[in-house]
Amino acid sequence: MAGTAQRLFTHRHTVRYRLERVRELSGLDVGSTDGREKLSLGLKAMRVLGIAHRGGPATEAGAAAGRVPRGR
């Protein structure tokens, strides 16, 4: 995790948070080979179909930058 954070120029807790959000939103465990494969194939399919959004949530109209509140 520390190596990934270093390559992304971010804190390791940020990497952990983002991976947790991927799990919450997709229902897939990025720690498993199966989960990573499904996410990878899904992203590739979105690109092929032309439905992949190149920007992030903060670039969408009306979206505020910052943390996404967790539903608890």
From TrEMBL:
Residues 2-45 form the PucR C-terminal helix-turn-helix domain. InterPro entries: CdaR-like_regulators, PucR_C-HTH_dom, PucR_C-HTH_sf. Transmembrane segments: none annotated. Coiled coil: none annotated. This is Unannotated protein. It comes from freshwater metagenome.
